[in-house]
Design a protein that fits this description.
heterodimer, A: mainly alpha, 3 helical TM bundles of succinate and fumarate reductases, 4 helices, B: mainly alpha, membrane (chain A), SdhC_prok (chain A)
């Protein structure tokens, strides 16, 4: 592109009505990334307390958590966040390699649709036995 | 010429590592989720089952590499997001130092947890 233009701040979320698909992909990737790294620290913290003493504490901690409906719902949320981050991450690797740049908006929509399909299909597995 | 805007650091290896860890994590995160939610239902996980898996050297090594690569990818991603937000100067150095320490702490504690799950030692 030639010529200059005022692109404004990339981080100016107040302009969300003007956002193109690529911008939404960027925002969703950031958001899901923050959730996943937050979960990573939490996950190790929970496993740390669960493995601090005898083996029954570990089993009881995990099975106790799994009895809570809210935990099952949050797991579905984590799955959707992880699946989107993975699929959009594959899309980003292709963008970085310069493949399919002209279809980057369609591949973002595809990431959303496939994420939704996988998550919906997984709900029965995640909610079984609660 | 278009205005040049970039937080890309020329000659840096972190950009490459962010992508190399991404490729690894795509497979291992999917494997981790699939194994512990679909093959083994999360509600049926017991210490005995976990210990049997973690005591296999190949599985242990995969999970430990998962810990290290996910920590790098996640924490470096947070750092990049903050740099994109305009973090610079002393604050950038301070945040970098805090995030580095947090990463080291997570990897050390994660390794301790991983070892506690095995009968390898």
């Amino acid at each position: 592109m030639s010529g200059t233009y005022d692109r404004g701040a990339v981080e100016d979320f107040g302009r969300w009505r003007e956002f193109q698909p690529g911008m939404w992909a960027w925002i969703f990737h950031k958001f899901t990334g923050w959730v996943l790294v937050g979960y990573l620290f939490t996950h190790i913290a929970v496993l740390s307390t669960a493995t601090a003493s005898d083996p029954t504490v570990y089993t009881n901690t995990l099975q106790g958590l799994e009895e809570l409906l809210i935990v099952r719902v949050l797991e579905v949320g984590l799955l959707s966040v992880a699946v989107f981050h993975i699929l959009n991450g594959v899309r980003l690797l292709f963008v970085d390699l310069g493949f399919g740049l002209e279809n980057q908006d369609k591949s973002f929509y595809a990431s959303l649709v496939v994420t939704a399909a996988i998550v919906v299909a997984s709900v029965p597995t995640f909610l079984a036995g609660v | 010429m278009a205005q040049h805007y970039s937080s890309f650091e020329r000659g840096g290896v972190k950009w490459l590592f962010q992508r190399l860890t991404a490729v690894f994590l795509i497979g291992v995160l999917a494997f981790h989720f699939f194994l512990l939610h679909f093959v083994n239902h999360a509600a049926d996980i017991t210490f005995m089952g976990t210990q049997a898996r973690m005591s296999q050297v190949g599985y242990f090594a995969t999970m430990w590499l998962f810990l290290v690569t996910a920590t790098f990818h996640g924490v470096n991603g947070v750092y990049n997001a903050l740099v994109n937000q305009g973090l610079s100067g002393g604050a950038k150095k301070a945040v970098g130092a805090v995030l580095t320490l947090a990463s080291i702490a997570l990897i050390v504690q994660g390794t301790r947890v991983a070892l506690a799950m095995t009968d390898l030692l």
